[in-house]
UniProtKB/TrEMBL annotation:
Cellular localisation: Cytoplasm
GO cellular component: cytoplasm; nucleus
GO biological process, alphabetically ordered: proteasome-mediated ubiquitin-dependent protein catabolic process; ubiquitin recycling
Cited CDD domains: WD40 (cd00200)
Protein's recorded name: Phospholipase A-2-activating protein
Organism ancestry: Eukaryota, Metazoa, Spiralia, Lophotrochozoa, Platyhelminthes
GO terms for MF: ubiquitin binding
Coiled coil: none
WD repeats: 11-51, 104-135, 160-188, 200-240, 241-272
Region Disordered, residue ranges: 481-522
The UniProt record lists the keyword Repeat: yes
Region forming the signal peptide: none
PANTHER family: PHOSPHOLIPASE A-2-ACTIVATING PROTEIN (PTHR19849:SF0)
């Protein structure tokens, strides 16, 4: 982009959150709101002026989506379509806004997504786990995603005139592609299916929005904090967009194809370049970050002339333009900057540490930001202030005052009056779209879990909301440690509250003289805090294999490289290790899977030396590793019937898994507490690869049955990922630069439950897998669970403890790989039998039995 976007205008007529917008024609904008209305707006093409149009009412609940049905034979003037939480879709004539032309009944829960095409067809998605295709007022098809809310729907271009091609994005993190024969679209016998043609897997959170980039590529936005670009033909992700620091709710494409724009829960709209049309996963950098004076940017759209419109949680629509003639005049631009500057930002939502001694003064603003959107917190007088770097304007913009940091006190000037009392915070909690928001007051000296529990009692809310409300308080109040936990310092603290939960090693550390007279409790084993490496190797055997294979290799290793292999030893110099690594990577593309496994074995040992993993995970080198090992073929395949890897490729995959496990263990120690310091490329790659490995296992594209070395490698990798997720979710400073971390504990839970379930509970299970596999899977699962749902404070009531265990049971139940009709309790019932088996298996090592028993204690 040559010119950055600047504020154009602000539209303030809605009285509730603006949840959906669309720009169907030049000069026309439509908006849907929680105030039960849809509004139209007239945009001037040559100035910043916008005028109000019509108001479309007649809804009896929140309006969650709006779209435009182009003119057709049935509706020559076109129709405005609205979707509401009252479960009804309404079609309005653009001129007559009083009564709908027709209504669509059929969904049994709120309708949250709408799309329309040039043929006059309508596509809707709902909380009832269905998407429906309509022709005027007739339902032609119902597509089902059992157990999932369908958050987004879209029509896709088809090369076959006799079929309809559509996509859905849902709360199960899946994008489903559906091809429907037009002969099946008969309103007398509506078509129904729950089997999509293809699924696109990779997101680790709800898929909230879909947008067509071009006829062959689809964009998606997710609660995992990322955008992805998908090749529709190959069914693979070709680009990832990381930059948002919280949920991403909406993605849109400039009609001219010049840029992509997204919005979400992090108070920003972000502008991205269009990725190149090539396979291979590109990492796309944000071009411009537009901060907003509201907490949530629910939806975003691009007008016909390339301006950005965003619907906000403060009931307003804001427009931004690259065209100077449509940008606001200088006084309005300054007023908008002033509004931003007076926002209050929670310290917990910011990426950098805010410890008092680390916050610089105003002199820090003399140094340019590292990239657009770079956030810096400085001290101005007695308060902390947040600035954001604008690369387009080459300056720092003030985006708010920081509250909830160590610099604030409970008697400071930021207190709010609520019901006759002063509070540090009065939050507006919007936990259910079918209920009005309520106020939640909180003082920093209060225990957030106790406040959350009292809040549930007061408003007669389900106990299941406890975890959500407490975490909301902790995050938005900027807490790192709850008051009642300050006396319980430990080396590892709870990942959400910062308070001491366990003292790892208190009963198991070396040198301890304490006698253990009972089984270890959950706090003794979970969270695990030690990484495991797989580094032992037989150098002489490795050298013999390499020498033999080297004789017929098209790109052989040099004699110097073989000499270095023979000298491989922990005392090898770093320069020799680096030389050997580069030699291996140089020849690897010329080796086939049948002979390449010794090279992979070397690499997994060499990553112990500083700097080696950075070379191994350079894009070209890592791509070669995936290609030669055949992992790339498995990862890219969208066919569930893909042939298994050959025995030779399977050997290579074994050493790649060991390489990944070692890199997590070794490179995690190089991460500093500065969110903008360099994160090892290995860590970024492995965290993003984890979900794709999980899909390989879930869909049985790779089977480790009877392969004990593979089982050990996968269990070790999963153990290390869980430990890493626990430490990083606890500190939180990497979440802004690697949002995929947010979903890692849940992903580890899914993988561990799946692998333990596959092992079985028959008498032969104990001898079927190595004992260390079971131990590492159990510790990985326990660590992931306490990271996702931490223990409440010791003083909390029995109700809160029971609610915590209920949350954990539901987490496991939802992760167990049963059929689509099974619910969370059925999943937990199945997996409970797995844990009982290992707790009672007398043939299993005692530490495995103790670990399974402790895990049951954690859950029941």
């Amino acid at each position: 982009m040559s010119t950055g976007f600047k504020f154009r205008s602000e539209l303030s007529a809605h009285s509730g959150d603006v949840r959906s917008i669309c720009c169907p024609q030049p000069g026309l904008l439509l908006s849907a709101s929680r105030d039960f209305t849809v509004r139209s707006w007239n945009l001037d093409a040559n100035t910043s002026q916008v005028s109000e149009g019509k108001v479309y009412s007649n809804h009896t609940n929140y309006v969650s989506a709006v779209t435009y049905l182009p003119p057709s034979s049935l509706s020559p003037q076109g129709l405005i379509l609205t979707a509401s939480n009252d479960r009804i879709i309404r079609a309005f004539n653009e001129v007559d806004c009083n009564e709908p032309v027709f209504v669509l009944h059929g969904h049994t829960e709120p309708v949250c997504a709408l799309a329309a095409n040039d043929e006059g067809l309508v596509f809707s998605g709902s909380w009832d786990s269905t998407a429906k295709i309509w022709n005027h007022d007739l339902c032609l098809a119902t597509l089902r995603r059992p157990g999932a809310t369908i958050w987004s729907v879209i029509f896709l271009p088809s090369t076959h005139p006799d079929e309809l091609y559509v996509a859905t994005g849902s709360s199960d993190s899946v994008i489903a592609l559906w091809r429907i024969q037009r002969t099946d679209l008969n309103h007398q016998h509506p078509y129904e299916t729950d089997k999509p043609t293809k699924t696109l897997l990779g997101h680790m959170g709800c898929v909230r929005s879909l947008a067509l980039l071009d006829p062959s590529r689809l964009l998606s936005a997710s609660n995992d904090g990322s955008l992805r670009c998908w090749d529709l033909s190959a069914g693979v992700c070709t680009a990832e967009f990381y930059g948002h620091t919280n949920f991403v709710y909406s993605v849109a494409v400039d009609p001219r194809g010049a840029f992509i724009v997204s919005s979400g829960e992090d108070r920003t709209v972000r502008v991205w370049p269009v990725p190149k049309p090539a396979l291979g996963c590109q990492q796309i950098e944000c071009e411009q970050t537009i901060s907003l004076p509201c907490q949530t940017a629910w939806c975003v759209a691009v007008t016909a002339d390339g301006d950005i419109a965003v619907g906000c949680s403060d009931k307003k629509i804001r427009l931004f333009s690259q065209n100077p003639t449509r940008q606001a005049p200088p006084d309005r631009l300054q007023a908008y900057e002033n509004e931003l500057a007076h926002c209050e930002l929670s310290a917990e939502t910011l990426p950098e540490s805010l410890a008092n001694e680390r916050v610089p003064g105003i002199e820090a603003l003399l140094v340019p930001g590292k990239k657009d959107g770079h956030v810096s917190v400085i001290r101005e007088d007695s308060k902390l202030v947040c600035y954001q770097w604008s690369a387009n304007e080459d300056r720092w913009l003030k985006v708010g005052d920081v509250v909830g940091s160590a610099a604030d006190s409970a008697t400071g000037s930021n207190r709010t009056l609520f019901e006759g009392r002063e509070y540090d915070f009065v939050f507006t909690v919007d936990f259910d779209e079918s209920m009005p928001p309520v106020k939640l007051p909180y003082n920093k000296t209060d225990d957030p879990w106790l406040v959350a529990q009292n809040f549930l009692y007061r408003h007669n809310l389900p106990q299941d909301y406890l975890d959500t409300v407490a975490k909301y308080i902790i995050k938005n109040a900027g807490l790192t440690e709850t008051p009642n936990q300050k006396q319980q310092q430990s080396t590892v603290s709870d990942p959400f509250t910062g308070g001491g939960r366990y003292v790892p090693g208190s009963t198991m550390e070396s040198g301890s003289t304490r006698e253990r007279t009972q089984l270890p409790g959950p706090g003794d084993l979970f969270p695990a805090t030690d990484y495991i490496t797989l580094e032992s190797t037989n150098v002489s055997l490795l050298l013999r294999k390499l020498t033999s294979f080297n004789e017929t290799a098209t790109t052989p290793l040099s004699n110097r490289a073989l000499e270095l292999v023979s000298a491989l030893d922990p005392r090898m110099s770093n320069s020799d290790a680096m030389e050997l690594t580069k030699a291996v990577l140089d020849v690897l593309p010329g080796w086939k899977a049948e002979t390449a496994f010794p090279l992979f074995d070397l690499l997994r040992c060499l990553v112990r030396w500083p700097g080696v993993s950075a070379v191994v995970f350079e894009p070209a080198s890592w791509s070669n590793i995936l290609q030669v090992s055949d992992l790339q073929n498995l990862l890219d395949s969208s066919d569930l019937q893909v042939p298994p890897p050959t025995p030779e490729a399977s050997n290579c995959i074994l050493f790649v898994l060991r390489l990944l496990a070692n890199c997590i263990a070794i490179d995690s120690s190089t991460i500093s507490s500065d969110a903008y310091s360099s994160i090892p490329t290995s860590i970024v790659t492995i965290v993003r690869l984890a979900s794709r490995l999980a899909n390989l296992l879930q869909f049985k594209k790779i089977d480790f049955s009877g392969k004990k070395h593979h089982q050990v490698a996968m269990a070790t990798l999963l153990h290390n990922l869980s430990v890493f997720a626990h430490f990083q979710c606890k500190s939180g400073h990497l979440l802004s630069v690697l949002p995929a971390l947010r979903g890692l504990p849940g992903l580890c839970t899914r993988m561990a439950t799946g692998l333990l379930s596959v092992v079985g509970t028959d008498p032969g299970a104990v001898s079927r897998v190595p004992p260390e596999v079971v131990w590492r899977l159990l510790t990985a699962l326990g660590t992931a669970i306490v990271t996702s749902v931490p223990d409440p404070a010791m003083e909390d009531s029995e109700k809160i403890l029971l609610a915590t265990k209920s949350q954990r049971i539901r987490l496991i139940g939802s992760a167990v790989p049963l059929g689509p009709l099974d619910d969370e309790l059925a999943g937990w019932g199945h997996f409970r039998q797995v844990l009982l088996f290992w707790a009672q298996a007398t043939a299993a090592p005692i530490k495995n039995r103790e670990c399974a028993s402790s895990l049951l204690q954690l859950l029941e």
